[in-house]
User: Fold this.
Amino acid sequence: MEAFIKINGQTVSVEITVEVYEYLDRAKHKNENLIHEQRRHWDRREFDEYIIARESRYYSEMPEQWLCRKETLQEIMVALESCTEIQRQRFLLFALDGMNYAEIGKFCGCSKYAVRDSIEAVRKKCRDFFKNGPHETGFSG
Assistant:
């Protein structure tokens, strides 16, 4: 295949493979889509930074995003402190490790129904914690 590139302002013809041509074509379309999206949302009120994160290799988290993520994690940890150690362990195996009730039951030496009850208790405590507002509850931590 033949492609045209600009070098020092001059257009030069080069031979490339089909794979390289397809890659360059996809990159061109992605760039056009991003430019179109930016133009469509010129006031940036609706511009989704996810597009930049997905299309750009050089995206980094903004300080505000980092701070919000850290604060949310701290609030979740405070909510989890109100749970028993067994509830917390079972919930984290379920939520973070992706284990199902039966797997957790086998790992912890209990029934899957006991695991379900523990996880539901944690969910209820977290729901109550965040419904009442993290700073307005009687939780300590």
